Prior knowledge:
Layout: H1 6-45, E1 49-53, E2 56-60, H2 68-74, H3 90-96, H4 99-104
Antiparallel strand pairs: 1-2
Amino acid sequence: xxxxxxxxxxxxxxxxxxxxxxxxxxxxxxxxxxxxxxxxxxxxxxxxxxxxxxxxxxxxxxxxxxxxxxxxxxxxxxxxxxxxxxxxxxxxxxxxxxxxxxxxxxxxxxxxxxxx
Length: 116
């Protein structure tokens, strides 16, 4: 019989977490696909608006948004500057400023974990 160290237990516990996470990811993909199928069926069979079904309100809507590309072509900035606003071009900023200056304005995001 071999003794296990805390490091061994930590590795086993971490491996179990990785396995659990990958299983949950597989379940999540299956669940998302099923939910998309269900919502597609409901959208095909219900009219726009709110319907009461199984003690729940099912809301069917068709959201709309402006086509920015088509608007830009129809109303170019040269003729309609009032429709536009200036925006900082971060690609140009990275090109023109030194890494030392950029570092002053760099903020860390949230830590992420990817399991493949």
